[in-house]
Amino acid sequence: MDRQDSSGTLYIVSTPLGNLEDITFRAIKILKQVDIIAAEDTRHSKKLLAHYGILTNMVSCHEHNETSKTPQFIAHLKTGRDIALISDAGTPGISDPGYKLVTAVAKQNLPIIPIPGCSAAIAGLSVSGLPTDSFLFLGFLPRKQQKLLQAIEAISDQRATLIFYESPRRIKALIDSMRNILGDRNAFLAREITKLHEEYIRGSLSDILTTLEKKEIIKGECSLFVQGRIEQEAIDEGQLEKILRKRITTMDLGTSDLAGQISREFAVSKKQVYDMILKLNQE
User: Fold this and answer.
1) pLDDT, averaged across the chain
2) Sign of the C-alpha dihedral, residues 38, 39, 42, 45?
3) Torsion angle, CA of 141/144/145/151, rounded to 10 degrees?
4) Alpha carbon of 245 to those of 230, 265, 269, 274: distances in Å?
């Protein structure tokens, strides 16, 4: 369907993660010019708009009302009014509201234009020190333990750098689960990106977990980056025994779980690993 020339445009506008100066000139211009700003939390976004003297009318568009509000937004666009969609921080639709609206507007063949800017996933990846040539963004994993473990297991063979979002309340449990399933891979944790108390932690999953365990309180949204599976050269029995002795003393895993982890990580027979664990435990 050919769109009418009089139709409005939906702008997907990236906003700062924390530091209000991390916004483009174009984003400010668009936010001032559009007829409506659809904001994830109007109360939160008032600070940004006030800082830049933006007086555009705001309406809410969050996970609980996005579906019901979408027909109204489409009607506005069809009458020639422009809309800017913003989330609380970063790029809308990336683990934030926006996907349903964008999909519905696209089906109407109405114009949608991105106004690029901040994204915690890309910002963190750029300073992670992990491979950037291939990465897989997975956002927030399931909260229920069984589904969480299944989700981690499903990506255990991925070679791309893995990117996750997590709340400060659950970040330690997530890292522990990943260490138990994926092995003690290299990783990077970015917390409070661009904000006053931003923190970056590099090392193995165990190293990061140890650092977090020393904190009384963990605050701020967390972005976790985990190295993908690396093709390992074959290891001999001496190397395998050395690895197992370390893991047995540092990781609280059952024999079968530890055998499975080592088998996946170093591409050796699970039975061989299992038998060696039993032997070491008898010493």
Assistant:
1) 93
2) negative
3) -30
4) 22, 16, 17, 13
